[in-house]
Amino acid sequence: MSSTASGKNGTWRNWGGNVSARPARQVAPASVDELAAAVRAAAEDGLKVKAVGTGHSFTSIAATDGVLIRPQLLTGIRRIDREAMTVTVEAGTPLKRLNAALAREGLSLTNMGDIMEQTVSGATSTGTHGTGRESGSIAAQIKGLELVTADGSVLTCSGKENPDVFAAARIGLGALGVVTAITFAVEPLFLLTAREEPMPFERVLAEFDQLWAENEHFEFYWFPHTGSTNTKRNNRSAGPERPVGQLAGWFEDEFLSNGVFQVAQWVGRAVPATVPAIARISSKALSARTYTDIPYKVFTSPRRVRFVEMEYAVPRAALAETLRELRTMVDRSGLRVSFPVEVRTAPADDITLSTASGRDSAYVAVHMFRGTPYHAYFTAAERILTAHEGRPHWGKVHTRDAEYFARVYPRFGEFTALRDRLDPERLFQNDYLRRVLGS
Q: What are the phi and psi torsion angles at 176 (to 5°)?
């Protein structure tokens, strides 16, 4: 993915195609020492530094006109500690490689997001998450971090060592240094049974607290312009494995979710008036199914239809009200929304700038097909989400700034003070960080 995220003549582009940058130079260090040297050299040349993963962020969080550090050579597992039940991986390791390698070792992460193209450091630094009643984001599973700071030194942190850095750097936005290795908590490989089934919008909202309480991992998709949702519950299972059959899997995941969905998006983009009818068909195309498999084969799925996304975390108790407001807005606006709204949850965690920091959260994600004007929809959605003190995902489209974040993150000042200490010269600064953290 990292190669496709870059364009010709030194221009870097993100996966969503909505951000591009022209760095002065690009570096692919093969070791932590080389990376530290690249950071020192950039500082001497008066250039800013940004590390980039696979470009799956929709914000310009990784964009720079300075030195762009690409981590594709910093990959692989450094060590597995079966007594402590941890695995230490190089920062540039793609999640899909980590998941497959852990499975071969009979191990797994507890929870994960719904795609696994990203690098471990890119995913955690932006707060990537799945859904869970007790288990939080990928960053919430971190037990230790190694990062190169602005002076070129290598800093390690954990709950015991440099705990103040650990509290912030697990979701560090690239503002505190360049992450070079991450130690994750892992557990013995387990099986999950997924139950996917359509459910009316009003029923999901009426029963949401119960659905959340009864399932380890509950999520649903609501199709705007319809009263329909598709729900998914993932729970641990004693087995046996019953994976999705190859033909059924191809039909549901490739043909319906990627192939037909792609064509429907093209039609909807060309003729917006067809969107509500397509939405009704789409919401009925997915039938109920149950399958049992190892975690990464249940949590994640391929996403080949390119889109732009905004996602906010609201207090979990505010979810039903937020979604009803969103539905009313779509119905009254004349907007044509061809992508379902995705809803997930996370328990409160103790990471300074985690979207779930200190509060049980529900995530509401709105998407638009790449190339479709998304501004009106996202602006209207954002107005609703911020009214509920929503916290936007750091890697997805939003218009919030430091003044807003100081209001919705009780520990915001703790993060900026640490940044002042670790990067006083703002070596890791870019336009995005200037906006969200202040200068």
A: -105, -15
Q: What is the DSSP string of 373-403?
A: --HHHHHHHHHHHHHTT-EE-TTS-----HH
In DSSP terms, 343 is beta-bridged to 220, 364
Contacts of 141 (CB under 8 A, 6+ apart): 109, 110, 111, 135, 184, 185
Tokens for 401? 């700034």
Per-residue pLDDT tens digits of the chain, which is 439 residues long = 333 444 556 899 998 888 999 999 999 999 999 999 999 999 999 999 999 999 999 999 999 999 999 999 999 999 999 999 999 999 999 999 999 999 999 999 999 999 889 999 999 999 999 999 999 999 999 999 999 999 999 999 999 999 999 999 999 999 999 999 999 999 999 999 999 999 999 999 999 999 999 999 999 999 999 999 999 999 999 989 998 876 566 556 665 666 667 777 777 777 787 777 777 777 676 678 899 999 999 998 877 778 899 999 999 999 999 999 999 999 999 898 988 999 999 999 999 999 999 999 999 999 998 888 899 999 999 999 999 999 999 999 999 999 999 999 999 999 999 999 999 999 999 999 999 999 8
pTM over 0.85: yes
User: What DSSP element (H or E) covers 365?
Assistant: strand 361-369
Task: Report d(CA 384, CA 285) in Å as an integer.
Answer: 30
Q: Please, which residues have CB within 8 angstroms of residue 19's CB and are 6 or more apart in sequence?
A: 13, 55, 57, 58, 59, 60, 63
Chain-centre distance for alpha carbon 210: 26
**Residue 206: partners with Cβ closer than 8 Å, 6 or more residues away:** none
